[in-house]
Protein backbone atom coordinates (compact mmCIF):
# COMPACT_ATOMS: atom_id res chain seq x y z
CA UNK A 1 0.00 0.00 0.00
CA UNK A 2 2.88 2.38 0.70
CA UNK A 3 4.11 1.87 -2.89
CA UNK A 4 0.65 2.72 -4.27
CA UNK A 5 0.54 5.86 -2.15
CA UNK A 6 3.99 6.91 -3.48
CA UNK A 7 2.84 6.49 -7.09
CA UNK A 8 -0.28 8.54 -6.43
CA UNK A 9 1.82 11.21 -4.76
CA UNK A 10 4.12 11.38 -7.81
CA UNK A 11 1.14 11.50 -10.17
CA UNK A 12 -0.43 14.29 -8.16
CA UNK A 13 2.83 16.26 -8.24
CA UNK A 14 3.07 15.85 -12.03
CA UNK A 15 -0.52 16.97 -12.50
CA UNK A 16 0.05 20.03 -10.31
CA UNK A 17 3.22 21.02 -12.19
CA UNK A 18 1.47 20.61 -15.56
CA UNK A 19 -1.55 22.60 -14.37
CA UNK A 20 0.66 25.41 -13.05
CA UNK A 21 2.51 25.51 -16.37
CA UNK A 22 -0.75 25.60 -18.33
CA UNK A 23 -2.16 28.47 -16.26
CA UNK A 24 1.12 30.39 -16.52
CA UNK A 25 0.97 30.12 -20.31
CA UNK A 26 -2.67 31.26 -20.32
CA UNK A 27 -1.90 34.30 -18.16
CA UNK A 28 1.17 35.19 -20.24
CA UNK A 29 -0.68 34.90 -23.55
CA UNK A 30 -3.58 37.06 -22.34
CA UNK A 31 -1.10 39.68 -21.08
CA UNK A 32 0.72 39.73 -24.43
CA UNK A 33 -2.56 40.04 -26.33
CA UNK A 34 -3.65 42.91 -24.09
CA UNK A 35 -0.35 44.72 -24.57
CA UNK A 36 -0.60 44.38 -28.35
CA UNK A 37 -4.17 45.66 -28.46
CA UNK A 38 -3.53 48.69 -26.26
CA UNK A 39 0.07 49.68 -26.92
CA UNK A 40 1.89 51.37 -29.76
CA UNK A 41 0.14 51.55 -33.11
CA UNK A 42 1.87 51.93 -36.48
CA UNK A 43 0.30 52.62 -39.88
CA UNK A 44 1.37 53.85 -43.29
CA UNK A 45 -0.32 57.04 -44.49
CA UNK A 46 -3.05 56.72 -47.11
CA UNK A 47 -0.73 57.79 -49.95
CA UNK A 48 2.22 55.74 -48.71
CA UNK A 49 4.57 58.67 -48.02
CA UNK A 50 5.29 57.95 -44.33
CA UNK A 51 4.77 55.52 -41.49
CA UNK A 52 3.10 56.95 -38.40
CA UNK A 53 3.80 55.51 -34.95
CA UNK A 54 1.19 56.51 -32.37
CA UNK A 55 2.00 55.93 -28.68
CA UNK A 56 -0.83 56.73 -26.25
CA UNK A 57 0.10 57.22 -22.60
CA UNK A 58 -0.88 56.20 -19.99
CA UNK A 59 -2.08 52.70 -20.78
CA UNK A 60 -4.86 51.78 -20.80
CA UNK A 61 -6.31 55.08 -22.00
CA UNK A 62 -9.01 56.36 -19.66
CA UNK A 63 -11.27 59.37 -19.35
CA UNK A 64 -10.38 60.23 -15.77
CA UNK A 65 -7.20 62.11 -16.65
CA UNK A 66 -5.15 63.52 -19.52
CA UNK A 67 -3.74 61.33 -22.28
CA UNK A 68 -0.58 62.11 -24.25
CA UNK A 69 -0.27 60.92 -27.82
CA UNK A 70 3.37 60.73 -28.88
CA UNK A 71 3.52 60.69 -32.68
CA UNK A 72 6.60 59.65 -34.64
CA UNK A 73 6.66 60.53 -38.34
CA UNK A 74 8.92 57.89 -39.90
CA UNK A 75 10.44 57.22 -43.29
CA UNK A 76 8.28 54.48 -44.81
CA UNK A 77 9.45 50.97 -43.99
CA UNK A 78 12.16 52.08 -41.54
CA UNK A 79 12.60 53.10 -37.94
CA UNK A 80 14.14 56.43 -39.00
CA UNK A 81 12.35 59.56 -37.85
CA UNK A 82 11.51 61.94 -40.71
CA UNK A 83 12.16 65.58 -39.75
CA UNK A 84 10.26 68.66 -40.98
CA UNK A 85 6.69 67.49 -41.26
CA UNK A 86 3.60 69.66 -41.72
CA UNK A 87 0.70 67.90 -39.98
CA UNK A 88 -2.52 68.07 -38.03
CA UNK A 89 -4.25 65.68 -35.63
CA UNK A 90 -8.03 65.24 -35.43
CA UNK A 91 -9.97 63.19 -32.86
CA UNK A 92 -13.56 62.11 -33.52
CA UNK A 93 -16.03 60.37 -31.25
CA UNK A 94 -17.88 57.16 -32.17
CA UNK A 95 -20.59 59.13 -34.01
CA UNK A 96 -17.96 60.77 -36.24
CA UNK A 97 -18.22 64.19 -34.59
CA UNK A 98 -14.91 66.06 -34.46
CA UNK A 99 -14.07 66.81 -30.83
CA UNK A 100 -10.44 67.92 -31.14
CA UNK A 101 -8.07 69.43 -33.72
CA UNK A 102 -4.44 70.14 -32.83
CA UNK A 103 -4.17 73.16 -35.14
CA UNK A 104 -7.22 74.70 -33.46
CA UNK A 105 -5.65 74.17 -30.03
CA UNK A 106 -2.54 75.97 -31.33
CA UNK A 107 -4.69 78.92 -32.44
CA UNK A 108 -4.43 78.34 -36.18
CA UNK A 109 -7.41 76.15 -37.13
CA UNK A 110 -7.15 74.57 -40.56
CA UNK A 111 -3.49 75.51 -40.99
CA UNK A 112 -0.97 72.67 -40.66
CA UNK A 113 1.39 72.59 -37.71
CA UNK A 114 5.12 71.96 -38.21
CA UNK A 115 7.57 69.72 -36.42
CA UNK A 116 11.28 70.10 -37.12
CA UNK A 117 12.15 67.00 -35.09
CA UNK A 118 9.59 64.62 -36.61
CA UNK A 119 8.20 63.67 -33.18
CA UNK A 120 5.36 65.49 -31.40
CA UNK A 121 3.31 64.93 -28.26
CA UNK A 122 -0.34 65.91 -28.36
CA UNK A 123 -2.28 66.15 -25.06
CA UNK A 124 -6.00 65.41 -24.84
CA UNK A 125 -8.44 64.56 -22.05
CA UNK A 126 -11.33 62.32 -23.07
CA UNK A 127 -14.67 63.25 -21.50
CA UNK A 128 -16.17 59.75 -21.56
CA UNK A 129 -15.36 56.14 -22.31
CA UNK A 130 -15.96 54.61 -25.74
CA UNK A 131 -14.38 54.23 -29.16
CA UNK A 132 -12.62 57.17 -30.78
CA UNK A 133 -10.81 57.70 -34.08
CA UNK A 134 -7.54 59.58 -34.31
CA UNK A 135 -6.47 60.87 -37.69
CA UNK A 136 -2.88 62.02 -38.18
CA UNK A 137 -2.86 64.14 -41.32
CA UNK A 138 0.30 64.99 -43.27
CA UNK A 139 0.51 68.05 -45.56
CA UNK A 140 4.24 68.44 -46.21
CA UNK A 141 7.60 66.71 -45.91
CA UNK A 142 10.94 68.57 -45.76
CA UNK A 143 9.23 71.91 -46.53
CA UNK A 144 7.61 70.45 -49.68
CA UNK A 145 3.81 70.37 -49.81
CA UNK A 146 2.29 66.99 -50.66
CA UNK A 147 -1.22 65.89 -51.53
CA UNK A 148 -2.70 65.44 -48.02
CA UNK A 149 -2.40 61.93 -46.60
CA UNK A 150 -3.57 60.50 -43.30
CA UNK A 151 -3.16 57.53 -41.00
CA UNK A 152 -6.29 56.69 -39.05
CA UNK A 153 -6.29 54.88 -35.71
CA UNK A 154 -9.09 53.59 -33.49
CA UNK A 155 -8.68 53.72 -29.74
CA UNK A 156 -10.86 52.44 -26.91
CA UNK A 157 -11.14 54.66 -23.87
CA UNK A 158 -12.03 53.01 -20.57
User: How many β-strand stretches?
Assistant: 9
Strand content: 35-45%
CATH names the topology of the largest domain as Immunoglobulin-like
Unreliable parts:
12-38
Q: Give a short account of the largest sheet.
A: 5 strands, antiparallel
Gross CATH architecture of the largest domain: Sandwich
Chain-averaged pLDDT: 83
The secondary-structure class comes to: alpha+beta
List SSEs in N-to-C order. Answer: HEEEEEHEEEE
How many structural units, i.e. domains? Answer: 2
Would you state the CATH class of the largest domain?
A: Mainly Beta
Number of helices: 2
Assembly type: single chain
Task: Describe the overall structure.
The protein is built from two helices and nine strands. It is of the alpha+beta class. The protein has two domains: 38 residues; 118 residues, Immunoglobulin-like (Sandwich). The strands form two sheets. Strands 4, 5, 6, 8 and 9 form a five-stranded antiparallel β-sheet that branches. Strand 4 and strand 5 form a beta hairpin. The chain is globular and about 40 Å long.
Amino acid sequence: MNKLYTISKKSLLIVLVLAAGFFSIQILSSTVTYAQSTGDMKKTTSGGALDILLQPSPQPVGHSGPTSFKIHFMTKGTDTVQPHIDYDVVIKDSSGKQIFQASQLAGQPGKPLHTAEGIVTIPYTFQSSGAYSISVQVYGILFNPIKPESADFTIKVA
